[in-house]
Every structure is written in structure tokens, then in C-alpha cells.
Design a protein that fits this description.
Shape: globular
Strand content: 15-25%
Distance between the termini: 39 Å
Helix content: 40-55%
CATH topology of the largest domain: Rossmann fold
Number of strands: 8
Radius of gyration: 19 Å
Number of helices: 13
Structural class: alpha/beta
CATH superfamily of the largest domain: Vaccinia Virus protein VP39
CATH class of the largest domain: Alpha Beta
Largest sheet: 8 strands, mixed
Amino acid sequence: MNANEATLVWVDEYSRMAEAYDKNVAPRFEPIAQEVVRLVDPKPGELFLDVGTGTGLLACQIAPRVLPQGVVAIDLADGAISVASYRAGNAGIRNIRFEMLDSRNIVYHGKLFDAAVSNLGIPALGYDRVFQEVHRVLKPSGRFVFSEWPTDPNPSFAALRELLEKHGTRSPSKDLALVREAVRLVRTDPEAKALGDPRAVLKALGVAGFEKRDATTKTFPVRFTSVAELVVFAGSYGWYERELREMTIESRKTFDEELAIRLKPLTTSAGIEDTWTLNLFVARSE
């Protein structure tokens, strides 16, 4: 499997799980999106590009602030775009143009946008091309603000990953086998792993033409009322859902028991309390 094939498998999983993702994952990313909005500081009349919009969380936060202009929100996952369009329509937001586009090839004229943003939406494979494309479509005075996960997962996700690998089926379906290969490529590819390293990202932004660039790290507290709620959250990403669905009954029982044990240090009377650490980037051409 090459990088392009892995990306398409990844995209298909996001598309397949878009409704569950919007319900169970996106609300927990609101504080991160709000921090991106704070850093980019949208102004009335500005035209924004939202890269990897997913189900439209960030685009819907920015759109009301830039009236009478708007937001072009792009993503490769058609299912996510459909859910995002519904989200915006349901909120009465009419100044977002959702498009199914590859952020490594943004088919818009150069120097068009006042700002570009992304909330956990930069593709791990090929992000250097994304940075070059964003630089191309931004006005000379434009700014680019985005959030990304660090290379090492937070404790609760680290436990989930390890136990899914331990208890996952040894006879996966064709679809799960493809997903596993795509996930393996993204997690082991040096370029993909570098997206979690602020120094590597700042260097890539510089190569793309951003003269001014800065990285900050911010923590966000998160609470799950139970292990089951955490598993529902994780299962709303396609690859985790496939792993959980194809486990044997006995394996799933053991997985749940071991996960509860692993998460005991994070467990309080209010539930499982973890901390998400995010890298936030601000880049300008001049």
C-alpha cells in the first residue's frame, strides 16, 4: 500500500462514520476549535479556507464572524461534507461553501484567501504539499492557523491502541486488513510521524514559503463518564469501530476489563479524566 492508497482508505473510514463522528467526537473538539478561532481572529469581510473541515465544526464557528464574506470548507470525505452541510443548514449558516477537495491540490486561484485554518484536519501523508498549496492560495498578508496532535498519544488513547492491537481479531475481514495497513503506514511513516513534531512542522512551513511561523502547546482537560463512553468516542472513528466489531465476544470482554484496569489511574468519582495536549501553529507569508 502506498501513501495515496492509505489516504483513500483513511478518507473512506471518516466518510463511513461521519454521523457518529459528528455526534460523539466533534463536540469534544469544540474547545480546540475555539482556540484556533481565537488565534486567527476572523474579521468581517474576510474570506476563509478551512482545510480538512470534517463535519464543519470550525467552519461553522468562523462563518458568522466574517459576514458578509464566508468560508470555503474542503475535505476529501464526501460523507463528512454531507454531515457538515446539514450542520451549517441546521444552524442557519448560509455563507459556507463545502467542497470535496484534496487539500494537497486546492483548485482555487492564487492569493485569494485572507486566512486559512484547520482543526486537526491536516493530512499526515503529504502535509508538505498542503502547506505549499495553502501558501499559494493565501493573500500575501494572509495567515494560516491550525491545530494538530503531538506524535505521542494521550494516556487513554495509548491504552486503547495497545489493547486493540492485543485483542484484535487474527482473521480480519478484507476491509479491516486494508484499514490496518493504512493505519500502520500513517503511524510508522517518518513524514507522517513528523506532523506531531512542532520543529518539523515549522521547518516544513518555512520551506512552503511562510516567513513568520510560531508553535505553541496547549492542554485541554477531557472527561468521559465511563470506560464505555470512551469506547463509544473511539469507535466513532472508523478504524476503531472495525476493530471492535470484529473482535470475538470473549476478546471484547477481556478488552473491556483490561482497559478499565489500565485507566484506573485516570478514574475519579466523576469518570475518566485525561488531558489532551495539542500543538497550535500560526504562520504568515510576511
